[in-house]
Design goal:
- The structure is a single chain.
- The chain is an alpha/beta fold.
- The protein has 15 helices and eight strands.
- Helix content is 48%, strand content 11%.
- The strands form two sheets. Strands 1-8-5-4-2-3 form a six-stranded parallel beta sheet, with helices on both faces.
- Strand 6 and strand 7 form a beta hairpin.
- It starts with 10 loop residues before the first strand and ends with a helix.
- The structure holds 5,6-dihydroxy-NADP and zinc ion.
- The site of 5,6-dihydroxy-NADP has 34 residues, from helix 2, helix 5, strand 6 and helix 7.
Length: 395
């Protein structure tokens, strides 16, 4: 087991009707004027925004609305949020939405508290100082990115060509409080539910198959989470208003990315590093869809470096019988079973399903490896040649 620090300070308020507690909780956290941040309109349609505003008003808090965040949140829009937050003198940001809204809120907070452009941190791998924390809260509407408890903030710079998607990883961006009512996810489309299931699984798997480390307890927690998500995912896709299934996905979203399953393990996240340039260059590609194509291909490419772990995963999570004489067959069967599951829940597993053709590969690889100078760290370094081989496995 590797040395680790575990700190997941976000207060989680979970269950039916928790919106009524928003105002009092925020007031206790010192909020007086709140920037209510949301996306393209789903929270207006469902009536959730009204509930949020009512709770804030009843608690005597003033607020200013700032909606319109697009999936894969853009830097130009974040700049507008920073200007608005400064002009309106807000002292709290409440993100009402999914990963894109939360990450936009986090970046606005970074801009407000540091006075710097958040891209300055994202582009250099640096982060704000420990005491530079702008209070952010979340009312989650989609179980997916795990940003409601994570120390990461992923934004897209749309002010440069080509667009670049990059994250700030810092304890300063963990939300202070998250209101998780599974009922608020009943309206998520089948496709976005599928994207969320994949992303939750990926945050768990990127901590599970990392190489050179062992932590039996973390791996068994991860396996339990993956099996629960696998089954709840099937139910939620078939019955979008099944509370228990949506509740399982929602809690799993948070647990998969608050570092619980990563304790004692090495953090590398290679498949996310392969995916982010894809959805940066193709804004219409959802993060989860990109991952469901790239993860199985990456796994097939690297499994030879860690046959025991991939075979264990296949056996314990994907119910593949263990072939003790040929564990590589078990490992491969697990990857095939995962692909079948992704197809069953309506997710793509081929590059062409993302609308990507081989003539675009060089541009994506260039962005991924910064012109071939920075390979993606994985079991081995993944440079242009290795990434091309992974794409070929995904065709
Ligand atoms: O904008 P609205 O109208 O709200 O519609 C959204 C959006 O179109 C819709 N939606 C959300 N809740 C809904 C709903 N539709 C109906 N009913 C509801 N209750 O779903 C669409 C996708 O929303 P988005 O927030 O983009 O989804 P997600 O939570 O998957 O977030 C994806 C973003 O998070 C980043 C991804 O890269 C991507 O930019 N990530 C952030 C991470 C983090 N900060 O820790 C980690 C992840 O690995 C990921 O990279
Ligand atoms: Zn992700």
């Amino acid at each position: 087991m590797q040395n680790f620090t575990y700190c997941a300070p976000t207060k989680v308020i979970f269950g039916r009707g928790v919106e009524s507690q928003i105002g009092t909780e925020l007031r206790e956290l010192g909020a007086t004027r709140v920037l209510v941040h949301f996306g393209g309109g789903s929270v207006k349609k469902t009536g959730l925004l009204d509930k949020v505003i009512t709770s804030l008003t009843e608690a005597g808090l003033s607020y200013v609305e700032f909606g319109g965040v697009e999936p894969n949140p853009k830097l130009s829009f974040i700049h507008k949020g920073i200007e608005l937050g400064r002009a309106e003198k807000v002292d709290f940001i409440l993100a009402v939405g999914g990963g894109s809204v939360i990450d936009s809120a986090k970046a606005i907070g970074v801009g407000l508290v540091t006075g710097n452009d958040p891209w300055q941190y994202a582009s250099t791998g640096t982060h704000p100082e420990r005491n530079e924390v702008f209070p952010v809260g979340v009312v989650l509407t989609i179980s997916a990115a795990g940003s409601e408890m994570s120390n990461s903030d992923v934004i897209t710079n749309d002010l440069i060509t080509p667009w670049v998607k990059q994250g700030i990883t810092s304890e300063t961006v963990r939300p202070l409080v998250a209101f998780l009512n599974p009922e608020n996810t009943f309206t998520v489309s089948k496709f976005q539910t599928g994207c969320g299931i994949v992303d939750i699984m990926m945050h768990t798997l990127e901590r599970y198959v990392t190489g050179q480390d062992e932590c039996d307890l973390s791996e068994r927690i991860a396996e339990a989470l993956l099996v629960s998500v696998r089954e709840a995912g099937r139910v939620a896709i078939a019955h979008p208003d099944n509370y228990e299934a949506r509740a399982t996905l929602m809690w799993a979203s948070s647990l998969s990315h608050n570092d619980l399953t990563g304790c004692g393990k090495i953090r590398k996240f290679p498949v996310h590093k392969l995916e982010h340039p894809v959805s940066a260059l193709h804004d219409s590609i959802s993060h989860g869809a990109g991952l469901s194509v790239l993860f199985p291909a990456w796994a097939q490419f690297v499994m030879k470096y860690d046959i025991p772990k991939f075979a264990q995963l296949a056996n314990r999570v994907w119910d593949c019988p263990m072939d003790f004489d040929h564990p590589e067959r078990t490992a491969l069967a697990g990857i095939e079973a995962m692909k079948r599951y992704f197809t069953e829940i309506g997710m793509p597993t081929h590059m062409s399903e993302l609308g990507l053709t081989p003539d675009e590969y060089d541009a994506i690889i260039d962005l991924t490896t910064k012109g071939g100078t920075r390979p993606v760290k994985s079991y081995i370094d993944l440079g242009p040649e290795e990434i091309r081989a992974i794409y070929a496995l995904a065709e």
